[in-house]
Amino acid sequence: MMSWPEGVERRVLDSVDSTNAEAARIADSLAGPCWIMARRQTAARGRRGRAWASPEGNFAATLVLRPAEAPGQAALRSFVAALALRETCAGLTGREAAFSLKWPNDVLLNGGKLAGILLESVGAGGRLTHLAIGIGVNLTAVPPPEAVEPGATPPVALAPETGIRPGQEAFLDALAAAYARWEYQFTTYGFAPIRSAWLAHAARLGQPITARTARETHEGTFETVDETGALVLNGPRGRVAIPAAEVFF
Amino acid sequence: MTKKSHDADVAFIQALAELLRSNELTELEVHRDYGEDDSLNVRVARQMQAAPAAAPVHVAAPAASAAPAPGAEVAQQAASPEDLAQHPGAVTSPMVGTVYLQAEPGTPAFVKIGDTVEEGETLLIIEAMKTMNHIPAPRAGTVKRILVEDGTPVEFGAPLMIVE
């Protein structure tokens, strides 16, 4: 049994529209950090309004925090969450090498998309009122093919790929403990160790990838992630640092 | 050059600068030959206008700010992004990222010009690293200007909207 991190609230709901939406509704009333897990999501969401298929038995939870850092720094928790989730999956399955990371925070299993993380924050003027880290993991089932965008990394699920079938709450307990350790690293030592650990597990580092922003498509060699968290591509137009994009292999 | 000749040159240039000021000149150029391979060229100049020279703009210009092409009518030049960031009603970007004016593609914009907004109401989203940061109105007021276009990159501190 993983020990639940001290000072962190744990809420488990039978059903909710989306754990990130629930986080936005209750954020103001929370006294401290809180994990909200739902056994079922009825209106799960991905980046920019994409639907996130959430078949029964899969994992859906959101961690709500009140970061002390400026918004740009707080957003680096995208990598913190990805590391915690990768470590949780590797630990539960014993397959350290099977899990890799796609910029900024997708966890891949055997090269397929196992999980998605979407962070939402509210704030300006140098402070955030809250940050919600929403995490969805295909524990048992992959989304139906019509829910997968053309060109996207094909989805995979933990149970069929590894034979390991953790329960939703057991997964939450393991993830919360792993997240607390990486959060401590981040708040104590800053982004540098997070960046190094992330790069050590990065998929396609040094290889050609495509990054699509809202208006442009960049192709180039995936060189690194810089100290601000931006994706660094070296392409025909030289080196570009991209803070927001969807990555395709 | 010896220390002595250096000091003499400095004194000479100071004298020229004084000459410039006392005679209300804008420019003075002197060439002095001291002998073979030894000469001094001095040009001192000053600006007479009280108006400061136009400051260069280093902020990554938001697409909507319509920077004039070189040679365009300067009198029509809109306030630079740096000026707008200082505007009392300016809402500036707290981070580097991509701007979204709608919650998601195909939905109405959070706000449009002329809308009245409450304090805390979301004006737009800035994304970095899959973090969607909702930028709230810092005060109640009217949206006077929208200085960024949907889907474009913004720098830290860039003016996004004017709300007053």
Task: Jot down its keywords.
heterodimer, A: 249 residues, alpha+beta, BirA Bifunctional Protein, domain 2, SH3 type barrels, 2 domains, 7-stranded mixed β-sheet, 5-stranded antiparallel β-sheet, 6 helices, 12 strands, globular, B: 164 residues, OB fold (Dihydrolipoamide Acetyltransferase, E2P), 4-stranded antiparallel β-sheet, 10 strands, elongated
Can you lay out the helices and strands and say which pair or pack?
The complex is a heterodimer of chains A (249) and B (164).
Chain A: E1 9-16, H1 19-26, E2 34-41, E3 59-65, H2 71-74, H3 77-93, E4 99-102, E5 106-109, E6 112-124, E7 127-137, H4 158-162, H5 168-189, H6 191-200, E8 208-212, E9 217-225, E10 231-235, E11 238-242, E12 246-248
Parallel strand pairs in A: 1-2
Antiparallel strand pairs in A: 2-3, 3-7, 4-5, 5-6, 6-7, 8-9, 8-12, 9-10, 10-11
Chain B: H1 3-22, E1 27-35, E2 38-45, H2 81-86, E3 90-92, E4 97-100, E5 116-117, E6 122-128, E7 131-136, E8 141-146, E9 153-154, E10 159-163
Antiparallel strand pairs in B: 1-2, 3-10, 4-6, 4-9, 5-8, 6-7, 8-10
What's a quick, concise take on this entry?
The complex is a heterodimer of chains A (249) and B (164). With 249 residues, chain A is an alpha+beta fold.
CATH superfamily of the largest domain in chain B: RNA polymerase II/Efflux pump adaptor protein, barrel-sandwich hybrid domain
Helix share of residues of chain B? Answer: 10-25%
Distance between the termini of chain B: 61 Å
* Largest sheet, strands/sense/barrel of chain A: 7 strands, mixed
Helical run tally of chain A: 6
| CATH architecture call of the largest domain in chain A | 2-Layer Sandwich
The helix count of chain B comes to 2
Q: What string, H for helix and E for strand, traces the elements of chain B in order?
A: HEEHEEEEEEEE
**Stretches with pLDDT under 50, minimum 5 residues of chain B:** 48-77
Proportion in β-strands of chain B = 25-35%
The total of beta strands of chain B comes to 10
Q: What is the global morphology of chain A?
A: globular
CATH fold naming of the largest domain in chain A: BirA Bifunctional Protein, domain 2
Count of the domains of chain B: 2
Order of SSEs of chain A? EHEEHHEEEEHHHEEEEE
Give the full name of the CATH homologous superfamily of the largest domain in chain A: Bira Bifunctional Protein, Domain 2
Instruction: Give the total of domains of chain A.
Output: 2
